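STRUCTURE:
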């Protein structure tokens, strides 16, 4: 096998089938496919077994988080290059060949991200800069209300030409191709991140170890963002802010560590604000009583 695909599934429904269908039809022929199911109860795995009885399924029996599930899936494969994918991602025809050619051409390439398209065809900013303190705060405060602000533009590298390959600080874990040898050097995904920031952390460790992390727009995938977490917005808000603090605690050094208590307060306040906003947004509409 030239490459393997690890799909981390959590209640993705029929989208898991679409993801696997695209992988089975890869232009490169047989691909080693492993689905790691994080305790889904939506019948997605049963549908997969019915339609694709030969697909390997790892069942840890609980929701272990994205990084730990990715490590389990990678351990169940043998190919030198592994794509780790969300279940709501469809790999477009020709994408795998572009990605594997890059790994063949560059032995120092450790992580490669494709162009990720939203379902409306727009580009999702999946290749980004490592979040420095100033850009992180500016993006956190202004990203939703003024997405064109300079902090968000810098963090998401929105001014970079999306049609040109480039090295980046980190890539979205929704769809990323990884070199096994490089993963072995850094110890794989950090399993202490339940969800969010595990991709930022992994790419940073790869960069720190001297490997390259790059973006390849010639390869495209389509991603339906947030399918697995759509029904649990409060949990997502909690884990996002907790992961952000863990990342800061792991990587801030020297005097920056004095800022960690302030970061904890800021993230807690932002998480609370998002939770309150979510409660208003999802509050059921009460129809007026008429007589």
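SEQUENCE:
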């Amino acid at each position: 096998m030239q490459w393997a695909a690890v799909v981390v599934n959590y209640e993705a429904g029929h989208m898991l089938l679409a993801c696997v269908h695209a992988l089975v039809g890869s232009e490169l022929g047989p691909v080693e496919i492993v689905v790691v199911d994080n305790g889904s109860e939506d019948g997605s795995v049963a549908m997969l077994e019915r339609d694709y009885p030969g697909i390997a399924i790892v069942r840890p029996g609980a929701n272990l988080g994205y990084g730990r599930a990715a490590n389990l899936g990678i351990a169940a494969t043998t190919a030198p290059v592994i794509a780790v994918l969300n279940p709501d991602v469809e790999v477009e025809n020709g994408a795998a060949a572009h990605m594997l050619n890059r790994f063949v051409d560059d032995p120092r390439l450790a992580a490669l991200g494709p162009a990720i398209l939203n379902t409306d065809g727009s580009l999702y900013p999946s290749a980004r800069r490592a979040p420095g303190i100033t850009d992180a705060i500016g993006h956190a405060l202004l990203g939703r209300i003024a997405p064109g602000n300079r902090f968000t533009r810098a963090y998401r590298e929105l001014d970079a030409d999306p049609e040109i390959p480039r090295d980046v600080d980190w890539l979205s874990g929704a769809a990323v191709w990884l070199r096994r040898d490089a993963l072995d050097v850094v110890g794989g995904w950090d399993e202490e991140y339940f969800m969010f920031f595990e991709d930022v952390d992994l790419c940073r460790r790869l960069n720190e170890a001297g490997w390259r992390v790059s973006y390849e727009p010639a390869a495209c995938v389509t991603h339906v963002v947030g399918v697995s977490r759509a029904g649990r917005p409060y949990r997502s808000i909690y884990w996002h802010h907790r992961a952000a603090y863990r990342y800061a605690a792991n990587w801030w050094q020297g005097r920056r560590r004095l800022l960690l208590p302030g970061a904890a307060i800021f993230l807690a306040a932002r998480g609370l604000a998002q939770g309150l906003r979510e409660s208003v947004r999802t509050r059921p509409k009460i129809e007026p009583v008429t007589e």
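REMARK: The first strand starts at residue 3 and ends at 9.
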